[in-house]
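Onboarding guide, step 5: your first structure request.
Type a short instruction followed by the sequence, for example:

Predict the 3D structure of this protein.
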Amino acid sequence: MSDATDTDEPIFEPRLWRDNGWTAQVIKNEDDEGWAVAMFKAGESEPALVGPWTMGRDKKNPKPLDTAAFNTLVKTASEVIRRHEQQLHAQLNKALYVARDGNWIKVSLEIVPAEDDPYAWLAAQDAAGEPLAKVKVGANFKFTQSAAEAWVDAGFERPAGRD
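The system replies with structure tokens like these:
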């Protein structure tokens, strides 16, 4: 993005809008004769959303941005970010249930994707959500139903050779 988009001041130009933490920039589509719009969340260098943009009446230049279009783009880009965050959360957090002595135990794995040394937390909670155990394991810990059951049956001892 250009230097004109590096501040927080609102901008309302035909090809560049910035307001409420978002910037919409209409750009020439490199693949064809058309136009595209890129939506940037404040502080991010990569766009959250890039999509086709409508041609103006002259069929050469892009349609100018306006309030309704900008608000729709913000809503769509926010949804893209929300879905990405949900997907990442699901990849990094898993849970299984183990039944023992008539009680359910929730066993969870939370991966901490540290750049230098990723790791994970293996944790157990009773049916009321009270913590029973928490141990650090390798980020590559194979989290399966049998692994969860074995950990519970071993009295929540840190799994050997798992990091």
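Each response can be followed by summary notes, for example: The helical segments are 67-92, 145-153.
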